[in-house]
Amino acid sequence: MQAKAGHAELKRKAEEARDKKAAYGQDIDLDKFKEGSKDIPQVERLAELSEDEQRTLLSAGVVPSEQGRSGSFVLMDESVVHSSIKEKGVEVMPVSQALEKYDWMKEYYWKAVAPDADKYTARTFMEEADGYFIRALPGAKVTAPVQTCLMIKGKRVAQTVHNVIIVEEGAEMEVVTGCSTSKGVEEALHLGISEFYLKKGSKLTFTMIHNWSETIGVRPRTVIQQDEDSTYINNYVALRPVKSIQTYPTARLEGRNAFARFNTVALAHPGSEMDLGSRAILAAEGSRCDMISRTIATGGKVIARGQMIGKAKNVRGHLECRGLILGEGGVQIAIPELEAYVPELEMTHEAAVGKIAQDQVEYLMARGLTEEEAVGIIVRGFLEVGIRGLPPELKKEIDITIEKADVKGM
Amino acid sequence: MLEIENLGVEVGGRQILKNVNLSVMAGYTNVLFGPNGSGKSTLLMTIMGFSGYKVTEGRILFNGEDITRLPVNERASLGIGIMMQRPPNLVGVTLNNMVKVTGKGRVDPQKAAEDLDLEGFLDRDVNVGFSGGEIKRSEILQLGAQNPCLYLLDEPESGVDLVSIEKLGHKVRDLLQGGQSCAGKKAKAGKSALVITHTGQILDYIEADRGYVMCKGTIACAGNPRDLLSEIRKMGYEECIKCKLRLATLN
Questions:
Q1: Which residues, 6 or more positions from B5, have their beta carbon under 8 angstroms from its beta carbon?
Q2: Cβ B90–A378 below 8 Å, yes or no?
Q3: Model-level ipTM above the cut of 0.90
Q4: Neighboring chain B residues of A365 at a CB cutoff of 8 Å
Q5: Residue B31 sits in which domain range?
Q6: pLDDT single digits (tens) A372-402
């Protein structure tokens, strides 16, 4: 009864927030978009998907053969097309199913992200969006990554998604999420709520590859709740064109000695606007955070935000954001913010924006490389720093994406 | 092979070199002495063609071709290679990758690094956190992979510890006097070098053919490198300037 009353209260709040503009990013008119289809048929194996669809999965780091993955989950528009597990110690299912199966899900569902945060969270709440539920059982060391793909297929669709990840005490898990768009999709919107819970001593490596397209608007809303001694590694890679992304995942480090790292690698093509932030609320003694952002503007606009809020003793944090402008028309805005509320902590930041250093280019040219080759190597090196520590096979896929990305112009 | 005629160079609007005349014949190793700030590094950087080194007069010929206005990479592909005094950090570019691209895939970085005790550095970013001596060894490693015809070496021995200098010296000797023919368009033309040295220590390892002394942005003296070195050791650079003055009055 109480839960229902709570839900009614949330619903009222969400309704009130239906037109509430977000704090950042250009405002998107939600009325222009329709709900995503919930009727796309399921497949037993990802290999049964069409060739085009499989290619789309691969480009976003999701392996259609499911080899080397402990579980797979694919959402197309708003239909769960596939959900499977291959390894013990891990659960993968639609959030809707987890809500039916586990009474305790209400302790996690809409507990980290507020439904009335802005119009995007409100719409996702009102639509009772589905998404993935991934859970590592207590003490489980899940060896292979779980892969998920969120794909937009329909035109003028606003895809709403609600994901929950729980890493139980002492468990370790890796999740790779590829977001992508089917060929020929015009003007669509992705609204994704993600609530991650890391219990005591657990570890989650979460890698998100955004492969949207020129006409897609993207508004993810992510909160990570961290208990004592937990480790959260967030890798975010967005190298393909997109219309507008605004994201500001927030890690709440509420247990002692919790650690969070955010690595961001992004490329803003002409016409792309990317407002990418990472926020850590260091609320417990000894909690730490590192943020590294490497962005390139080849004609588009990047706003690289980073915020660390230190509220406890012995908190440490370092924020590093570097942005390159290659070619005309690119814009880089770096906004690092540090907030300290107690004296016994140390947080630092460094930010740099500009063009490639000429002395580096000439150094490589003196070794016989053309200017174009030299710039290519420096740019790859620049991005490389942002994705160091990724699992080798994923790195390989990202290297290919970097290789393909047109970053030659100066 | 290399001829420098009446060269004048400006850096940041200031005249650094004037009336520089110097040549390095094919197969020769020439040495450049001179006090700090006399313009030795500027000369090497200008020969390589780095921006910021503006040639105001004169010209640079390489194998008879005027290269004064050529871009850096074209000079490199003609067969000129440089060991820089202060190369920039290349964050995110490993030494392994650098050797690979410099050697155009023909060089095994692992094997090449062994000669210079640099195996442990292959996975590190080029020059990032390298000590002075490590930079020298890494530069020689890259030059070995590049295999130019004309080596421009800026104080190869400075900052190198006593154990490493032996390896480095032998490696430089192998590069300059070994049997390898040089890469690029002038293969088999024979190796040449122009080496800046303060201490002359590198002369323990390589045969030098001709020495030049640079003072205040111009060549003050030329002669047998060992004679010049012992004179400089005895009397300092003052004597060279006097020598220059004597020459001027004779003319």
A1: B21, B58, B59, B60, B61
A2: yes
A3: yes
A4: 71-73, 76
A5: 2-250
A6: 899 989 988 888 888 776 767 667 767 776 7
